[in-house]
Amino acid sequence: MIELNFNTSNYSTLLEQIAQSLKCSIKESTILLPPIFGEGWFWAETLPSGMSILVSDAKLSQEIIFNKPALTDQFFSLEFSELYTTNKKGGVHKEILFQSFAVLHQTSNPLHFSIPAFTRVKSVKIYFSLKQLAQLINSESIELLFTKDIMDYLSTELPKIIDAQYRTILDDLIVPQIMHPLKLNFIQNRILLLFEKFIQKRLKANILSSKNKLNSSELERLMQVENILLQDYALAPPTIEKLSKICAMSATKLKSEFRNLYGAPIYEYYQKNRMAKAKSLLLDGNYTSKEVGLLIGYSNLSHFAAAFKKEYGVSPSDLLSKHLDIRN
Question: Which of the 8 DSSP states describes residue 175?
Fold first, then answer.
C-alpha cells in the first residue's frame, strides 16, 4: 500500500512526493512507472499563472491512498478521471470503464480516497486559486461559477460524467509527453477550454432549472439519465420507456428537458458520445479498430466503421494507422 499526504497548493510538489514514494526519478516533469510498481506514467506542470496540472494514465500494482487535509487557503481542484478494471471472460481479459467523472473540489473540505491495485486511472487534475484563475478568464465568469450558493453546493454535488465535449480536449492532454513547441501555452489553452465547458454546463443547468421550473431533484434525475446512457457502451442503451421510469418523468417531458439540458435528443447525444469514446480508445493505441468496435457495442464492424466515418470523416482503421505512424 502507498499512502500520500498532499498538503500543498501545487501538483508539481505532489509529483515529487509520488516519485519519492515509488523510489523513481522525474525526467522532464514526468514519472515513468518502474515495472515493480505497475505500468503507466504521471506528469505535472506549473503554469506562469501559478496554476498547476497533474496528468496520469497509470495502473499501480499496489493500492494507493491520498489524504488531503482541509486547507485554510482557498484553492480548488477541477478533476476529470476515468477508472478501469479488468474482467476475464471466455479466457479474454477485457478492460471495463466503471467510473467516469468531472468534479470541482474546494480545499476547505478534506479529501480522502483510495485507488485499488490494478485499477487503471486516466486523469487530469487542475489546481488553482481564484486569483490565479482570474489571470486566464474574465471576472464575470468567475463570479458566475463561484457564487456562494455554488460554493455551498460543492460539498454535496454529484460528480458529472465525462462526455464528448470534454473528451476531445482531454485526449490532447492524456499523453505521456506534450510534444508542442509552445508546451505551456498549449497546456494552458486546453485548461481554458476545459474551464469553458465546465462553466457552460453549470450555467446552462442553472438557467434551465430556473426557466423550466425544474427542481433540484428533477435536474439530478436528468443527470442520472445521462450517467446511465454513457456508463457502458458495450450494452444497448435503455429504452425511453425504461429511462422515463428511472427518472420518474413522462416520456414527453424527459425527451424535452433532456434536449434542453444537453442540446441534443437522447439517442443522438448517446451516439455522439459513443463515437467520441471510440475515438479516444483508438488514440489510446492499445486496441485494434475491431476491438474498439466490440467494446462500444457493435457486433457488425462495417456498421461501426460507417458510423465513425460519418462522425469524423475518416474510418477507424485509417485514424488508428495515422496515429500509430505519428507515435512511431
Answer: S
